[in-house]
Design a protein that fits this description.
alpha/beta; 18 strands; 24% strand
Length: 376
């Protein structure tokens, strides 16, 4: 392409500081270096983790930054040493890398990678090295991706190539929310046929967890949320029972225990709230109950040790436990063949210039997923 090897000037939504509206800016995107790929972003979702960094993380060292990590696009150019990608390939950028060489990548028990930005910079959620500049200063690339920009540069170990006929304005959601929730159920929790499950929080991640429980063969799936307007959508993904914790004068864990003869086999916390995490654990049956922390947060949490001594398991998951560079093309194929739903998550579509409206919709719980059109 004519732009290969040159600095590209393009539109991006820049977060200059915490807890402030994003600003539409013209940024400069440098050419890809050794092992890197420059991607023209076509579409992106808006995820709660973007909002977490903007409104809850508030570590000023993580700004200015370009948010967005749930995108899809087309390879514009590649740097030296890149052999598996070429201009024109359809790809999904990944916030979790898979180098294939470190001790974590070689271990089947985890999807961690030593080469990921999160290994050293989880507090600011960005590697200090960036290919973005604006107004003469460096702009961080949030979670190594920055899909709220028309172009981004990413290392090849954090990019997945997908089939040419995949619709980018839908499969972009597989880069975070859907993979996270679905994988939390089928991989991390290991939901079994005939089991009873409870999913706390019915955003996109929670709904994907409901879908995972259903596809794994759960016989009963409790959808738990304080927003009852989400119950109809949860039914679409396979939920069988619906609970609003505010409708009861006792802890929701006691309600679930009464309804299930002691507690659920599997619970998945998809909010990122320590109090909800504890409630999800306490909702599990003793002896074999498994509770999974899915929602992203980085604050202290607690529980009574007897909950674990009694035989329950409490674990966490990142990106659904998928070794994502290998697994994402398979998830795209699962969508293309009808095994998993994606379209049903999309409630709004907007242009990049409407990013602050999209963020407000997410912040107020008025949408499941909003797709931003980034480039033609």
């Amino acid at each position: 392409m004519a732009t290969a090897g040159k600095v590209i000037k393009c539109r991006a939504a820049v977060a200059w500081e915490p807890n402030a509206p994003l600003m539409m800016e013209e940024i400069e995107v440098a050419p890809p270096q050794e092992g890197e790929i420059r991607i023209k972003v076509v579409a992106t979702g808006v995820c709660h983790t973007d909002l977490y960094h903007l409104f809850e993380g508030k570590d000023k060292r993580g700004f200015p930054t370009v948010l967005g990590h749930e995108g899809a696009g087309v390879v514009e150019s590649v740097g030296p040493g890149v052999t598996d990608f070429k201009p024109g390939d359809k790809v999904i950028p990944l916030f979790l890398s898979q180098c294939g060489e470190c001790k974590f990548c070689k271990c089947p028990k985890t999807n961690m990678c030593d080469c990921s930005w999160s290994s050293n910079y989880h507090d600011i959620m960005s590697d200090p090295t960036t290919r973005f500049t604006c107004r003469g200063q460096p702009i961080l690339q949030f979670m190594g991706t920055s899909t709220f920009s028309e172009y981004t540069v990413i290392n090849q170990i954090a990019v997945a190539k997908i089939v040419d006929d995949a619709p980018l304005d839908r499969v972009c959601l597989l880069g975070c929310g859907i993979a996270t929730g679905y994988g939390a159920a089928v991989n991390t929790a290991g939901v079994t046929p005939g089991s009873v499950c409870a999913v706390f929080g019915l955003g996109a991640v929670g709904l994907a967890a409901v879908m995972g429980c259903k596809n794994a063969g759960a016989s009963r799936i409790f959808a738990v949320d304080i927003n009852e307007q989400k119950f109809e959508k949860a039914k679409v993904f396979g939920a069988t029972d619906f609970l609003n914790p505010k409708a009861y004068d006792k802890p929701i864990s006691e309600v679930l225990a009464e309804l299930t003869n002691g507690g659920v086999d599997f619970s998945l916390e998809c909010v990122g709230n320590p109090e909800v995490s504890r409630a999800a654990l306490e909702s599990c049956i003793k002896g074999w109950g498994v509770s999974v922390l899915v929602g992203y947060t980085d604050v202290d949490f607690s529980a009574r040790p007897i909950q674990l001594i009694s035989g329950k398991t409490w674990k966490g998951t990142l990106l659904g436990g998928y070794k994502i560079k290998d697994s994402l093309p398979k998830l795209v194929n699962d969508y293309m063949t009808g095994k998993i739903m994606v379209d049903e998550f999309i409630t709004h579509k907007m242009d990049l210039e409407q990013i602050n409206d999209a963020i407000n919709l997410m912040k107020t719980g008025q949408c499941i997923r909003c797709i931003l059109n980034i480039s033609k």
